């Protein structure tokens, strides 16, 4: 007989979370002006706002924290991190940064200039922000299947090579400083990129002389999907798959708050000495000396261990399969979710879930608020509020999809928590026809309004 699945770790330290009543939550969310970012974490039972920096560290990581070497220059913890980054990614040069967007800031300061274009597969929003801030343009070359939630494709993060070649043919080489390959593709819902696509994209980049950089925030989860879905890699270890993935690029930026299994940190790694030299100038200006760059020694030590743990199959299986577990439960109950389920989050399709709420009353936000009121679960709206207004007309931009994202922190909740989340969502789904009205905005910032928006119930 086959025994049930069980996690490859046990719990050494716990953090209590608070239950609350329906009456309390109704009051708290009203005080928060129906913006979930305004809630205090003690007012939340299960926090699925993000998987960024919210995971749990292991005993070995905490042990390394005690051993942290806080020397300004030449710290042992830096050496440990560099050794592990070299072994795991194959990249020789390392610049630590305080988080992922700082790595983007340093690298792009060295490479991206006004008028440039940077092709990629749905750039992450901070990546796009750092490109556009330099008056350059991010060009999305993701395959068309990515935007159709009803078709199954095992690698929806893939780059469309025809779209990419068109970019290479349209713009002069001097205006294409690099291609950015995001693994897994967060913007498309945590969808992976296949090894075949990485290899072919790399070949195309090489034939046009364009450097390929990875946005590696979720590189280990991407490697897990390659192992599970790409036949030739079935028997390879995650570490071998990771090494091969990165061998097709010139370097990477990393948000260590994801697959680094730490609460804060990031880095740039590259094999290109010239790019490394250019980037160190900006690293020193923006982040700190090159052997700490915005991280304390103890945090570099914890990251060194985290990278090793994140590239072990047993860990990745527990992580990704927990997300799939919740996804399967919801699908079995008929709840409309984006498919296939990605590596780090579930996306509820609010257009199908609450079509009775008018779009200009922010139906995805209304659904996210309802999940909080009913079950104390915090998710995040990825819909009209996030999409901001058209800067020219001042009208709301209505994206194709109105989503509510439930991002699962790493090694933090048990499957009992997932059962609870599924039960709450199922109950809200049962009563969805009662939802007729949503919210109106009473205050919003000119850009990135979703963080500070204030709403009123209609
Ligand atoms: C989170 C993330 C970033 C930015 O990293 P921060 O650590 O939040 O600054 C960049 N790219 C991707 C794909 C991410 O998920």
Structure overview:
The protein is built from 15 helices and 14 strands. It has 458 residues and is of the alpha/beta class. It folds into 2 domains: 175 residues, Aspartate Aminotransferase, domain 1, CATH 3.90.1150.10; 252 residues, Aspartate Aminotransferase, domain 2 (3-Layer(aba) Sandwich), CATH 3.40.640.10. The strands form 5 sheets. The chain has a 5-stranded mixed beta sheet, sandwiched between helices. Strands 9-12-11 form a 3-stranded antiparallel beta sheet. It starts with 21 loop residues before the first helix and ends with a strand. The relative contact order is 0.16. The site of pyridoxal-5'-phosphate (PLP) has 15 residues, from helix 4 and helix 5.
Structure characteristics:
Aspartate Aminotransferase, domain 2; single chain; alpha/beta; globular; binds pyridoxal-5'-phosphate; three-stranded antiparallel β-sheet; 39% helix; five-stranded mixed β-sheet; Aspartate Aminotransferase, domain 1; 2 domains; 458 residues
What is the overall shape?
A: globular
- SSE-based structural type: alpha/beta
Low-pLDDT stretches are: none
Order of helices and strands: HEHHEHEHEHEHEHHEEHHHEHHEEEHEE
Mean pLDDT: 96
The major sheet is characterized as: 5 strands, mixed
Number of helices: 15
The level of helicity is 25-40%
Order the strands across the largest sheet as they lie in space. Answer: 2-8-7-6-5
CATH superfamily of the largest domain: Type I PLP-dependent aspartate aminotransferase-like (Major domain)
Alpha-carbon distance between the two ends = 55 Å
Q: What is the third-level CATH name, the topology of the largest domain?
A: Aspartate Aminotransferase, domain 2
CATH architecture title of the largest domain:
3-Layer(aba) Sandwich
């Amino acid at each position: 007989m086959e025994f049930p699945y069980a996690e490859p770790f046990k719990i050494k330290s716990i953090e209590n979370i608070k239950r609350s009543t329906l009456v309390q939550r109704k009051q708290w969310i009203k005080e928060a002006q129906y913006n979930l970012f305004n809630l205090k974490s003690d007012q939340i039972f299960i926090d699925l706002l993000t998987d960024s920096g919210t995971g749990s560290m292991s005993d070995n990581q905490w042990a390394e924290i005690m051993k942290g070497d806080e020397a300004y220059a030449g710290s042992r913890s830096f050496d440990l991190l560099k050794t592990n980054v070299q072994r795991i990614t194959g990249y020789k040069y390392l610049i630590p940064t305080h988080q992922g967007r700082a790595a983007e800031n340093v690298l792009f300061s060295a490479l991206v200039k006004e008028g440039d274009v940077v092709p990629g597969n749905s750039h992450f929003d901070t990546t796009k922000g750092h490109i556009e801030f330099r008056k350059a343009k991010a060009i999305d070359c993701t395959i068309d299947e990515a935007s159709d939630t009803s078709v199954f494709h095992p690698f929806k993060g893939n780059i469309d090579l025809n779209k990419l070649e068109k970019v290479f043919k349209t713009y002069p080489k001097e205006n294409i400083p690099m291609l950015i390959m995001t693994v897994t593709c967060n913007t498309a819902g945590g969808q992976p990129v296949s090894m075949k696509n990485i290899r072919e994209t790399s070949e195309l980049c090489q034939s046009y002389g364009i450097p390929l950089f990875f946005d590696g925030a979720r590189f280990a989860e991407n490697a897990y999907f390659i192992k599970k879905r790409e036949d030739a890699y079935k028997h390879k270890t995650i570490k071998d798959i990771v090494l091969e993935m990165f061998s097709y690029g010139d370097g990477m930026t990393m948000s260590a708050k994801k697959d680094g299994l730490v609460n804060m940190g990031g880095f740039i790694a590259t094999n290109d000495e010239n790019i490394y030299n250019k980037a160190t100038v900006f690293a020193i200006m923006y982040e700190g000396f090159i052997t700490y760059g915005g991280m304390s020694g103890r945090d570099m030590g914890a990251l060194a261990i985290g990278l090793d743990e994140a590239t072990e199959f047993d860990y990745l299986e527990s992580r990704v399969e927990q997300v799939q577990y919740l996804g399967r439960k919801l699908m079995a109950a008929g709840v409309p979710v984006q498919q296939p389920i990605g590596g780090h989050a579930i996306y509820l399709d609010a257009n199908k879930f609450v079509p009775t709420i008018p779009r200009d009353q922010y139906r995805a936000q209304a659904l996210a608020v309802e999940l909080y009121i009913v079950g104390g679960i915090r998710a995040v709206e990825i819909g009209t509020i996030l999409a901001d207004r058209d800067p020219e007309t001042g009208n709301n931009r209505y994206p194709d999809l109105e989503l509510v994202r439930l991002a699962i922190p790493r090694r933090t909740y048990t499957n009992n928590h997932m059962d609870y989340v599924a039960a709450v969502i199922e109950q809200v789904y049962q009563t969805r026809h009662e939802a007729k009205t949503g919210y109106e905005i009473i205050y919003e910032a000119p850009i990135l309004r979703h963080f500070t928006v204030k709403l009123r119930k209609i």
